[in-house]
Amino acid sequence: MMQRRHLLAFGTLGAFGALGAAGLGLPAAALAQANPPRMNPQLRQRSVRAIAGGLHYLRGQQAPDGSLLGNVGVTALALRAFLESPEKYSEADGPFVTRQVQYLLGKARPDGSISASLQGTAYNTAVAITALAATKNPKYEPVLAAGRKFLAEHQVDESEGYKPDHPFYGGIGYGGGERPDLSNLYMSLEGLKAAGADPKDPVWQKALVFISRTQNRSESNDQKWAGNDGGFIYRPGFNMAEYENGTGSYGGMTAAGLLSLLFAGADKNDPRVQAAYKWMTANYTLDVNPGTNKKHGLFYFYNAFAKVMSAWGEDSFVDAKGQRHNWRDELAQKLLGLQAADGSWANAESNAWWEDRPQLVTAWSVIALEQVIK
Q1: Angle at the Cα of 317 from the Cα atoms of 316 and 321, rounded to 5 degrees
Q2: Is residue 16 helix, strand or coil?
Q3: Residue 244: its pLDDT value, please?
Q4: Rounded distance, CA 103 to CA 87, Å?
Q5: Separation CA 146–CA 3 (nearest Å)
Q6: What is the phi-psi region of residue 325: left when phi exceeds 0, alpha when psi lies from -120 to 50, beta otherwise?
């Protein structure tokens, strides 16, 4: 009887909604136009299948210990891809998940870092705690707490003899390298947020100092090199030589910088946020890393772009030429066209920063598509 009442109630509400629409004189086509889907339904279905293909590839790349390439960072990204997939894989699904979890836990060090070597400790720790937090398993809270503490202590600040007026203040580097950069800071902030860091922790405000000093916005950047287009660069006063654009803004770092601002608590009305969003949408392209004529770091850009646009919460935007773009449809179409027959992705036109390695790039691409279909 209760089920019958529920069905009757549902039917009554459905009829009421239809009558209401008819009463407003809105035909079905007009209603669809007023409330368009977030993305093309067929593209969404194809994206779900592409995610499944990518995950199948990643599963086949696991070593007996669960790792991919024997690398903490790549393994953590792959684990995150499984956990955030439409299938919502979990440890209950068995060894192809639990082996990855145990591999990461086995690399936890007494100082709180999670890394297989002394190189890249902050990067590895950041992506590892992001993945472990995605398991939603409370047993890992001590590891997450230790990871949060390690990243906060790794931040460049007074404890290392740096004053707030130093260009590196508030930044985080790879670990094993002495200079901080925006990419590692963004990943560290993502890890801290995912792992439940206190929003009132000083790490966020210190990070905002460094973030501001990597933005080409002279109103909020006190460095002499700063331009005024609102985009971001890799490190104060420095970009990777591969781009040959001096201190010019580019897409991968602008997406990372905008994400970092949002992670650190800046809201959408913050002038720094508005300037970064304006640069990213005005310079939008999926053919190269925006702001350059290069394909170096292209899949890094796709991954960061998908995450920041999903966080922004709008499905379309208008570029500098006045053209409207549905970013979900366009990024899905681009990634679908680049997927190999075995389900993997790789950057066929650049080997910079491991983008020729399908294990890494497939994990990035799957995570990007997972953001697209949200």
Answers
A1: 135
A2: helix
A3: 82
A4: 22
A5: 49
A6: beta
| Whole-angstrom distance, CA of residue 261 vs CA of residue 230 | 13
Q: List the structure tokens of 339.
A: 């997927």
Which residue has 């979890």 as its token pair? 101
Helix (H) or strand (E) holding 36: none
Q: Where are the beta strands (DSSP E) in 205-331?
A: 316-318, 324-326
Task: Return the number of other C-beta atoms located less than 10 Å from residue 283's C-beta.
Answer: 18
pTM of this prediction? 0.90
Residue 120 makes CB contacts below 8 A (sequence gap 6+) with 73, 174, 175, 176
Backbone angles phi, psi at 234, to 5 degrees: -70, -45
- Coil, helix or strand for 237? coil
pLDDT tens per residue across span 273-302: 999 999 999 999 999 999 999 999 999 999
DSSP string, 274-301: HHHHHHHHHT--SSS-TTSS--TTHHHH
Q: Are 355 and 299 in contact (CB under 8 A)?
A: yes
d(CA 21, CA 204): 48
Mean pLDDT for each consecutive 10-residue tract of the chain (374 residues)?
Answer: 33 34 46 68 98 98 98 98 98 98 98 90 97 98 98 95 96 85 98 97 98 98 97 95 89 98 97 98 97 96 98 95 97 98 97 97 98 97
Q: Are 201 and 210 in contact (CB under 8 A)?
A: no
